[in-house]
What we know:
The chain is mainly α. It has helices spanning 2-33, 39-46, 61-64, 68-86, 89-94, 109-136, 138-150, 163-192, 198-202, 204-238, 248-265, 268-277, 283-288, 290-304, 310-340; strands spanning 155-157, 245-247. The chain is built from 15 helices and 2 strands.
Amino acid sequence: RRSDTHQARRRGRARAWREMETKAAMRRCTRVGAPVGKDARRWREGKRRTMHKCRPVQATAQDEKPNYEDWNQAKPKALKATNQDDRSAIQKFLYPDPEELPDDVEMTIWEHLEELRERVMVSAAAVSVAILGCFCFSKDLVVFLEDPVAQQGVRFLQLSPGEYFFTTFKVAGYTGLLLGTPVVLYEVIEYVLPGLTKSERKFLAPVVLGSSVLFYLGILFSYQVLTPAALNFFVSYAEGAVESLWSIDQYFEFVLVLMLSTGLSFQVPVVQILLGQLRIVSSEQMLGAWRYVLVGAVAAAAVLTPSTDPFTQMLLATPLFGLYMGGAGAVRLIEGGRKLA
Length: 341
């Protein structure tokens, strides 16, 4: 009995050992040769019938020890590509790739400050010379700016000593600043140009040129249309009740502020093109928000115009809204050209 029991135990241990070997062989076959997809289910159903045909597969040294050198070489490239894809448009603008910078120039912070000081001095000198030259012709400038209401019977008075002198200096300062703006823009562009990428340099010249043209168009629009309409409204409203005797200082403050605010408000398409070029806002988003823009244009016109009459506000709000829609159309053209490229 003891021998029979001993033999039964031996047979049981041998059977368990064979089952363990079979399962280990099956796991090796599953790891190395198991199918995937639609054939995986069929393979699982028939693996018991073909289990005796499966042979243990010896793992090679390459399978046991992966090639970490290739992974270490490929890992930085993969991480770099992933980081480039995950970066937003603002991050790409602030931190461009070194390959996109054509000028490989390195400067210390003190060299940057020295260059900035030189360009600020040149800009200040150009504006000062322009202001001095305009002050020599200040009387002609005053007569030129009085022309919109000169034929309406309006007379200008000097209400305090030195008011006319300070007014002429103010007119010369605004006019000289306008004449010296091209030099200031040139110095600013030369300072920031080494830090721009190739793609940014392509649209730098059109943006600067368009911004300058729109600014001077806004001043011309204010002088030819907006200022005469607003002043004629005031003169006609007071006709028959009071005589129009205006302070020379307050009149020029009104005219100059109106012209400057109109020129700045004409920069709306430039801002839209910059946002579209940086892919921060699309043309569809701009066109979809036209209702809010219409309300914002009316509110901006109320803030920018020094007068409180609704007629002057509508005269400024209408071109603002038209410029916004034109800027959205320009962004759509840029997106279309980008898709074709």
